[in-house]
Amino acid sequence: MPRQVDHVGRRRLIAEAVCRLADERGLEGVTLRDVAARAEVSMGAVQRCFRTKEEMLVFALGYIGERIGERVQARLVRSPAQSAGTALGHAATEISLLAEEHRAEARVWLAFVAQAAVSPALAGTLKANYAALQDAFARLIAEVGEEAEPVGPLDPRREARTLLALADGLTTHVLIGHLTPQDAHDVLHAHLAGLWEQRVRPPH
Question: What is the number of other CB atoms lying within 10 angstroms of the CB of residue 71?
Answer without folding.
Answer: 18
